[in-house]
Structures are given as structure tokens and as C-alpha cells.
Amino acid sequence: MNDLIIVNMLLLGGTALVAALILYFVSKKFAVRRDEMAIRIAECLPQANCGACGKAGCADFAAACAGADENEFANLYCPVGGAAVMQKIASLKGFAATDKPSTVAVLRCQGNCRNAPAKIIYDAVSSCRIAHRISSGQSGCPDGCLHLGDCVKVCKFGALSFDEKSGMPVVDTSKCVSCGACVKICPRGLFEIRPQSPAGGMVYVACRNKQKGAVARKNCSAACIGCAKCAKLSDLIRIEDNLSYIPPAVDAGELGSALQQACPTGAIIYKERIRG
Amino acid sequence: MVKKYTFPMGGIHPDKHKITASCPIIKAELPPFVTIPVKQHIGAPAKILVTKGDKVKAGTLLADADGIVSADVHSSVSGEVTKIEDTPGAGGYTEKMITVKVEGDDWESSIDRTPDIVKEIKLTAEEIIAKIREGGIVGMGGAGYPTPIKTTLPEGKKAEMLIINGIECEPFLTADDRLMIEKAEQIIMGAKVLNRALGIQNAVIAIDENKPDAIERITNLSKLYVGVNVKVCKTKYPQGGERQLINAITGRELPSGKLPIDIGCVVQNVGTVFAVYETVLKNKPLFERVVTVSGPGCAHPGNYLARIGTPISSLIKQSGGQPDDIEKIVLGGPMMGNTVTNTETPVTKLTSGILLLNGAEFAKHEPTACIRCGKCALVCPAGLRPFAIRQAVSFNDPADTLRRLHVGDCIECGCCAYTCPAHIPLLDYCKIAKQEIRKK
Questions:
Q1: pLDDT of amino acid B440
Q2: Which of A272, B68, B77, B250 has its C-alpha lying 20 to 30 A from B99's C-alpha?
Q3: ipTM of the complex model
Q4: Interchain pair B93, A135: CB under 8 A
Q5: What is the pLDDT of residues B36-89, one digit of tens each?
Q6: Which residue in B264, B310, B333, B403 sits closest to B17, CA to CA?
């Protein structure tokens, strides 16, 4: 009886030992090598996997950071995590953190139902990309917002919402991380990721219509008519194809309110503070 | 029993609604002004030759083809050029257009305006192609591919058969049907001209079996001419598609990404063939075309011979005006046509019909969830899976995924959206997908 127990114990124990040895060697031999640095960097990242940094996801970004030298590291930036996360990663790597001004997505259109009343009824699929193909839109403006909210659907951070009253998407600047998803989805390219001015303000032309002034105004009362009144205030402002563009280099704190007042149609938007 | 030809894969049978089949072609009234787009074709816009204030006659060259893939644009009326600027087109997007104020109706003196039918072709193949180019002829079936390119044989390729597309499978449209009945002899002569240009003696006029008058007329006449035959096709949509028609007539399947000439075929629409006849033998460039004005919202449907550039509102007015309860106005057929948001948009070389649609049949249905029935894949004449394309598009899948679904082979016939029991606008998704793969 005792013999049987001992034989069993030896047999099973021996099998277990052999299996354990095989497993040990296999796990050593085929172990996935992971960069300790990449793991630690990945832990700092927001794990949104949005692709805003230009990499395939957070893990890819972490690997890129881990393998980067000081020059390459200066070009890497996680817009979701912002300066705080980049500071952490930089301290892990022992580099100096790159400093970028905080950015936010802005909608360059004011074609709401008051400024640009609907002339036709669009009742096909509720998708801007489809509507863009079919016609110039309800107001007739070929460059304006289509009010169907592809951007709201694509935003992963809940920063875009639909204002029922005006029919326009609204950016919640406290939630926007400048990932650029709305920029990519909008068939009319109405979104722009803009950096804040040093004082924290922002000034931009909220119109993309390139038609002649009279034609543009027929469709929307808040259209840029290319009158160049804003261009007189700063040499940086360009007027091309009847449309003005205020580059981010124009200091909003200095010129913002003057530009806003100079615009006869109200196409220029000035905000004193974007965040906080 | 005559053998009737058709293509094997997919297809649907929508209601025909050919209410204007017995309405003779009438000349549309001249509008007070015409707006002529400089790009009515696939390819580069034509280079404008006239300036504001110039006096032009019907048939005067307004804009010259810019490069090989482009087409000449002629004035369709006599009068004064008043504007050359960006004007809103059918969808509200602006295009460069030339506005001519109509004064009288003077034609260029070189145009042969006699009703006699010219039955003698003295020109060589090269001369014919040069004349077609000068006439600004493009594929009038809807694609607008410049005809001279199609008729010029590429190096090392040989044409075996010229297929003349008289199918007109879209519901409502009867422009080609009436043209075949009233201008049968001219179309046959046009076919002979193209035969000469291609160096063959084998033109086949394919006609849908739902056009008995046209079949009878063309069959009787074609007996008198060598090298022009008639083949009757079974009614099925989209039989008029180039690939489908080649498959139906010859039994050859056009491989993905190949052109008809690669398998020895050249396909031309009957409207194009008629324009070829007029240009080559009567010296008249393409500046007018037959347009069907029809639809349940139309008080007096009819077929009009309209000048290019006539605002569609003018044609709508002539056929009874626009009712208040109109659901939508469509340019082209109800299956493939586009909804118009601007009724001042002009008739172009490609406008085969203007449809005023209202009533329950054309009312919008709210799309519901896909029930995975697979009907869309069953009716797709290109053998695609529209439901999968829609899924890929709505999840913003990369272009490679779409390419794997062969989105590029979609002919945008709309069978999938027509048949979908959940009313999902599958065609719109396919169009977006095609746009996506073209981007990169």
C-alpha cells in the first residue's frame, strides 16, 4: 500500500519537475523583451490612444520616447497629457522638457441659423461627409458648417457638443486636448488647432468662404468679405481669395479687440481667455 | 424567338415610369440668357477664349480643350458674352461659367442646317477624330468622358466591336428612346462614322426590349447599312452600365481596372453617336441635346431639344412649372441622378433628364439597423458587399481596408440602396469610400 503511494508521488513529482524545467527554459528562451524605460513612460501617458501625437497609440509613443535622443525627444509631444506629462517623461529620461503653448480646436464658421438661414431642406443621412457631396448645404454657403455633427461624433474627449439653439458644434475648451480628430473628419476643414497667445487669449477669422464679398454675404451675414480692414492693423494678416486669415503669430492680447471691432461683418472672434 | 441579352450578376427591376416615351422631341424655347460651364466633362476645364462684351453666334468656340483629357465648349446661342465668373451650379458649389445674353438666333455659317441626311463619309479616321475633338463631344450617357480619347485606339490595341448604348435603363428617362425613333437614320450614319474611325465594320446597337418602337425603326433601317446590327437586351437595371453592357452583348467580363478597349470593345451612347453624326457630317458642334422633363410632380412631361446652358427652371416652366409640394428635383435619372438645390443651374452636355419628384414613392425613409440580409450584395452588379463597405466607412477604417473590399469597382448604380429593406443609404457610403481611396 505504502509502496503505491510512494511510486505515485515520485511519478507525479518527476513529471511536474520535467514540465517545470521545460516551461522555465521556454519562457527564458522566448521571453518578450520590453524596454523598462518604455514601460515606465507608458505609465505616465493618458492612455487615450487617440493618435494625436502622430504615433499609432500610447504604447508606440512610449517606445518612440524611450528610443529618442535629446533632439528627437524635442519633437515628440503628447497633446492630451500636455506639459505636465511631458515634464514627467523628460525627468525619467533626464532631458529638459519641451515647452509648447497650450492649443485648442476652434471652429472657423459662424453660419448658425440666424446668420445663415436655411434655404433648402436636407433630410438625407445625418452625416456631414454625405451632405458635403450632395450640395453646398442648407444655407447655400459652399464652405460653411453643415450642422450634422460628424465632429461631435468623432470627439473622444466629450469636448464637442451640439448647441440646439444655434445648430452649431461648440468646443468645450476645458475638455479639448487638441487631438485633431475633428480637423480630420470635417469635410470642409472648418476646425483648426490654434495655440494661445502668451496672454492666454485668441483671435481668429471664423469664416472659410472664398466667394466674393457680395455672394458670401447673400448666404451668411457673418461671412468674411475680404475687405482687408483687419490687414491694415497687422502685416501678418493675409487676404487670399476674398478671405482673411489671422495667423497664430498675431498677438491676441495686443490686437484682439481692435481686430474684432474693425471687422464689419463680425467674422473675427476674439476671446480674452481660452482656459481658466 | 429572338435571343435577348443580359448580364449575369446582380441587377434590379425598378418601375419603369417611361411616361414620356410617346412624346415627340420638341424644341425648347430660347431662354433670355444661357450660362455655359467650361467644365462639362471629366478632366481639365477648358481654357476660355472669349472676353466680356464679345459677340458670339451659336456654334462659336467659347473655350478650348486644355490638354488631352478635356473638351471644347461652344456657344449654344447668338448674343453677347456678359459675364465670365464663378456661378453656383447644381449643388450650390460654384463653377466657372460663361453667361451669354441671347439676341436672335444666328448660327455659324459653316453649320449645315438643311434637314437632308448626309450618307457619304469622305473623311479618313484621323480627320474624323479631329472633327469629333473640334465638336467638343463627350460621352453623353452621364460620365462625360471626352469622346476623341475613346475613339483613338491606343498603341497595339485593336477594336473588334463598337457597342452603341441605347439601353437607357434609368426609370423616367426617354431622351435616347425618342432620339432613336426620330433620328434613327442619323444614328446609324453616326455609327458608320465611328466604324470608320475605329477601322472596323462591326457596330452593334443595343436596345432594351421595353422600347419596341425604337427596335422596329432601327432594325428596319439597319438592314440597309453594312456593319450596323441591332441586339435586343432584356430589361434589367443597370444594363446601360458599360461593364454590364459589354458582358451582356459579348459575354466577356471586363476585368477590374481595365478599359473596354482592352477586351476589344468601344461603347458609345446613342446621344453621343447622334452628336458625332452632326459634328462630322453636318459641321454642327455639340451645343444642344435632348432632355426629358418628367416625374410625378410634372404637369406636362415631355422631351425637349434644349440648348446647353439653358437654366433648368426655364425647362420646368415650359412643362407646367414647379409645384409647391415638390419633394426634390433631380438631374439625370432617379437611380443615379443628383438632387438639385439651385434651379438656375444650366443644362449641360450630360443632362439627360430633369425629374420633379414628389409623393410617397420618393418620400424619405428613416434608416433602421442593418439586418444582415445580404440583399445588397445579391443585387450588386459589380459583385461587391455594400454592407461591409458601409461598416468600414462608418468606423473610419483605413483606405487599405476599403481597397480590399474593391470599392474602386463600384459603378454607383444605386441597386444596393434601392433594395435595402432597412432603407440604409448604402450608395452614399460607397461614394464616400471611393473618395477615401482616391485621397491617398
A1: 58
A2: B68
A3: 0.77
A4: yes
A5: 999 999 889 999 999 999 999 999 999 998 888 899 999 999 999 999 988 888
A6: B333
Nearest to B370 by CA among B416, B424, B407, B415: B424
Q: Which residues pair with B27 in a beta bridge?
A: B305
The stretch B186-204 carries a mean pLDDT of 93
For B3-8, the CB contacts below 8 A with 24+ separation are B4/B209, B4/B232, B4/B233, B4/B234, B5/B206, B5/B231, B5/B232, B5/B233, B5/B234, B5/B248, B5/B249, B6/B233, B6/B234, B6/B236, B6/B239, B6/B248, B7/B236, B7/B239, B7/B244, B7/B245, B7/B247, B7/B248, B7/B381, B8/B247
Q: How far is CA B15 from CA B173, B236, B300, B419, in A?
A: 12, 11, 20, 13
Q: Quick check: A124 and B425 CB within 8 A?
A: yes
Closest CA to B164 of B117, B225, B119: B225
Which residue reads 465632429 in cell numbers? A151
A74-107, pLDDT tens digit by residue? Answer: 888 888 887 888 888 888 888 877 777 778 899 9
DSSP lists the bridge partners of residue B165 as B206, B269
> Which residues in B lie closer than 8 A to residue A120 (C-beta atoms)?
341
The residue among A135, A151, A153, A184 with the most chain B CBs within 10 A of its CB, best to mutate, is A135
B253-291 per-position pLDDT tens digit: 999 888 899 999 999 999 999 999 999 999 999 999 999
First-to-last alpha carbon distance for chain B, in angstroms, is 51
Min distance A250 CA to chain B CA atoms (Å): 32
